[in-house]
Structure prediction request, 212 residues.
Amino acid sequence: MSGGAGRRLGPKVVRKITTWLIYTGPGGRAMPALVQDREAVSMAIAIYPGSFDPVTRGHLDIIKRAAKINDHLIVAVLINSAKHPLFTIEERVALLQECCRDIPNVTVESFDGLTVDFARRRHATVMVRGLRAVTDFENEIQLAQTNHALMPGIETVFLATSIKWSYLSSTVVKEAARYGSDISKFVTPNVEKAVRAKFAALPLENGKSPCG
Prediction:
């Protein structure tokens, strides 16, 4: 049998669990023996949504830091039919999985529709967002408030992008690659290789390859 009282600890619920084993003692009497006294902790699951077209070193900075403060982080790759991404959803997921393979509590999934619906399906209680500049905050706070209205159980955690990546975005990477600039400082080697291959396969523009 088990019993105990719960207490709140941030996004986690900690419950003291005492487990007893009932055995037959002398004279056939039931005798309880303490087997285990432990704390059962529910996992804090967070999601980090985005297009990641492609994933940059700035994204990875946020992923690594978010993974340190959550039990499980799901990098949620958005399927957005309104956009025309450079990489397919399968390619973006594969690149992220390769980039995150050394972070044991991070998984990568794709989703379509509202982010809060995906969070609800995955039992997530935290949504991670990166802020590159003060100008991002106005849009992000509105989005956070909307998400909380749609799903009161979700909390948004803003992580300020490291200063060295504050200028970086997927658009910057694609524009630099399009004109043949070095993007190795912006992305990991596997992503650089994939970006180069994508632009090399595009039709020639004015008789010149988009990669220069």
